[in-house]
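User: Predict the full complex structure for these chains.
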Amino acid sequence: MVGIGFRKDFATTLLQSPSFNPAFIEVAPENWIGVGGYWKKLFNQALEKYPLYTHGLSLSVGSPDELDLNFLQKVKTFLRDTNAQIYSEHLSYSKCDNAHLYDLLPIPFTAEAVRHVSRRIRQVQDFLERKIAIEIVSYYTPVAPELTEIAFINAILEEAGCNLLLDVNNVYVNGFNHQYDAKAFIDQLPMDKVAYIHMAGHEKVSDDLIIDTHGEAIIDPVYDLFAYTIQRLDRDVPVLLERDFNIPELDELQQEINRLQQIKNVHLKNPRYATA
Amino acid sequence: MQLPETTHQHQSALADYCRTGKYSAIPGVREQHVTQYRRLVYNVVDDMLQSAYPLTHHLLTTREWNALVQEFFSNHPCQSPQVWYMPKELFEYLSPKEHKLKNKYPFLLELLWLEWLEVELFMMEDRPAAYTTIGDISTDELVLNPEHHLQQFQYPVHLKTAKQLTPADKGGYFLVLFRKPDSGEVNFINLSPALVAMLEILQEGPQTMDALIRQCCAAWQLQLSPEIQAAAHAFITQSLDNRLIIGFKSKH
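Assistant: Here is the predicted structure of the two-chain assembly.
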């Protein structure tokens, strides 16, 4: 099961195309809450055709600020109204000192942050009355780290009792940017907590930096890391192809979806659907 | 539940840098790469503002636009978790302030507001209305499209390009913006004060054309004449056609 991020850039084409067949769509609730008119009609058509997965942007679970419970209530209503299968968010912060930043900043890898973020994720799960999946984000610099990245992530997964959204491209990007072995990193993750996988393209902007743009096709080494991840998982989980910018013809996206599905088929001899 | 001080301070320092572009050393940060965060954050905000305010972006010089975005994002803590809604906060930020751009472009606030109204009307939640499209214009009660906004401006920002506006244009201008029910497209119509009164009466509830014209004439202390009737009929016919008047009150 491979889905696609539902972008306004290609929403109409997606709904009309007979040859583009994602298994599900994913949206950020923030982009659709309180929206009516033309986009609401299109979104409702999409919901009639595809199951919905959701991936939040603004909850800012890593923020030092208090959680925005008013916003979280809107998310809860949205998840209920759209029958969303999964709600995921980022292990990062996008709001600080009462100001939204609209991008994902890296949380300092500290024991304080582990306790704080884990508490907040538990609070979110209690409020939403569902488990959420938390995504390992790509990052371009550490910030005041006391722990390793893997220790930080695993401690939060353990203390928060949440699921993991494993963005394989992010692990590749982070491995490159911070000079570690991406496969060894994946080996250390709790595979039983992986509920959802993201795949995307990126852009290498210098000899020592890759930016997670979602604006290019997936490259072969990331497909290889995906194959490795699927083997380690040994069970089927939903996979999302993210493409947010520089959108190609849908045929090209379908080819990427086919390749992801093919890799799953090859490595899962007896595919079982079991989410964490 | 507050985060202990040290981690919070580092997070604040990074967030401040992203908002202001002024970097203060943060332990462990690779300074040659941290610039990406400032670039990414700033670009999201700049792109959203350009997208919401294309006419204002076109009016201002590049230097003025960049300075405005920088000033807004540095000084104003953005409150909306929904990035598409954030541009409204630029209008709200500028509204109460003395600002050199408002002196140079006295119509700037009105231009921003017009642009924001278009965004908000296009995006806003549906407002349900009970109506039928089958009816008789002469006898049936008319239903106003609930997805509309009546607006008064001092400058004709909806009629002239911003660069053509001069102080001599200052006056009183009325318009209605509305969302077409089928396409979701936002249209506007320039209005006379009498037509504004007519729409305000329709905002209260459905009315027949005759009742509407009579109430308007009474409000404006006008003698009902064939000319007034013909003009009102023409406006209502056009409004039914373009769906400012969405249809007729259902009889069932």
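Chain A touches chain B through 50 residues (CB under 8 Å).
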